[in-house]
Design goal:
Largest sheet of chain A: 2 strands, antiparallel
Helix content of chain A: 55-70%
Oligomer: homodimer
Radius of gyration of chain A: 23 Å
CATH topology of the largest domain in chain A: Four Helix Bundle (Hemerythrin (Met), subunit A)
Structural class of chain A: mainly alpha
Order of helices and strands of chain A: HHHEEHHHHHHH
CATH architecture of the largest domain in chain A: Up-down Bundle
Amino acid sequence: MLPNRGVALDSFRKPAFVKRMRDAKPNKEKSPKKPAAADRPVGVRRPDAARIPGASVHTSLASEIGLRIVRGDYPPGTILPNEAKWSETFSVSRSAVREAIKMLMAKSLLASRPKIGSWVEPKERWNLLDRDVLAWYATSPDREVFLKTVQEFRHIIEPEATAFAAMRRTDEQMAEISQACREMGEAASLQERTRADTRFHLAILRASGNDLLVPLGVLIESAFDHLFTYTTRAVDDLNHAQKLHEAIEKNIRLQRPDAARAAVRKLLANTDGVIRSR
Amino acid sequence: MLPNRGVALDSFRKPAFVKRMRDAKPNKEKSPKKPAAADRPVGVRRPDAARIPGASVHTSLASEIGLRIVRGDYPPGTILPNEAKWSETFSVSRSAVREAIKMLMAKSLLASRPKIGSWVEPKERWNLLDRDVLAWYATSPDREVFLKTVQEFRHIIEPEATAFAAMRRTDEQMAEISQACREMGEAASLQERTRADTRFHLAILRASGNDLLVPLGVLIESAFDHLFTYTTRAVDDLNHAQKLHEAIEKNIRLQRPDAARAAVRKLLANTDGVIRSR
DNA sequence: TTTATGTGTATTGTCAGACAATATTGCTTT
DNA sequence: AAAGCAATATTGTCTGACAATACACATAAA
């Protein structure tokens, strides 16, 4: 019943690579500390921690720890502070810590064993295509590099996905694509436009008929997220981009895979230009 | 600090789409039941559940529940039995159930709210490229379809990844690739060979210089996992496949992106043939 | 009747404290 | 010096309690 981790080869071994960095403190002593615990009444429960208003404790905790790991505070192989320590640091219960850690384990950022502790997994195991991990990852290096990586990935994926969509889309899927495209053109605000843009590309992925392509949508969302600041408001550019989108829509509608692929390549090249020129 | 879920557009709403299927029972009444609780002494703790010897309780639980979800026992939108129910069903503590559920939430299979319960997320949110989810997914439909999907994905990814590897690989990365290729040729058993084969392809992904390509290695692993049964033992085929691999290795070594890409396409076509002919 | 308001209640969220399982570490004995 | 053994630290698991939340229903007001 247990999923077959990796290939048959069960060369599973003790975490021999873990560096014994006991009671490891974060690398960079930027010390997140409590960013001024001012307007907080004394004696109240749950004093510090990176509490986020709307979110549950374990979710916030997972975000905080996950971010630190991805950011490189605890390099792969190091042993994290133990559960009691986290519990104390953030003034939360051990259960909350455990649930947070379980979330990070599910994303393959961590693994743990009794008497050893929890250590950071090697980077190539990280599930970088996970929404959260990607978001954390996006904050660490300068945006430039991240955006370039994502954009490169889009070049690999989207042309082919679109070609498949042109071959296999259902009428219903086509309707979604067309509507998103139309709404892009009619959008009043830039935000609304970006929204429709995202829907457009996600709909194409769904229409590709390959289930495995769908989860890559997070990359596109992330790209638009970070592209937003770059986006030019020049009307000419917007019109041009709109035409490129419409070309894609048309070729999918007419079921022309090759033309659709080419159209996507053009759009991506255009986006590349926007990034480069900034 | 909280990762920006999706694009800016916070059209976050109450789970309006959840079907109110209270105390939902699994769809298919295949009733996994306890598959004969024979050789188990009476009165012992933790009687049934899908306990897996080596694994922790919450991990086993997550596997069991995750498999059921992916398999379609609880379609997207349905509300799962509550924590107490699971706890009772599997005779484990509520904490264990919660930790398991947190793992599934981290993979976006579930979400939950107080007073509502936990519901299955829409399929397009599932993190299908996660190791575990992929493994569960691989068990559900017939292998044919799954393999075809994965293979199609490889056609999209690997040629481009290899071209990048040819351009950007370091000497160290090249050494890994070459060694894996060599070990493929020298492998004594089929299993050993598959092992090296996997390493070969993963090394190429790593050498591509695009961090986002690395996590896709799980797909390759999964492919080989399921391809294993198909693998022919005919010496001619093995020799042929080996030559194709060596061609790839050579073109990466000589830094010829286009030739490398073409070589990978050939190899994939060959693999396609193996699948089709079976 | 329709709309607002409050009240009950089921479910997850959080906490606290205990014990079990496990593997490292150092000590003891042969 | 080698082998076995005990001490110990850390995660794993269980139990029981209370808080927070938002649906559902009854009740009251317009």
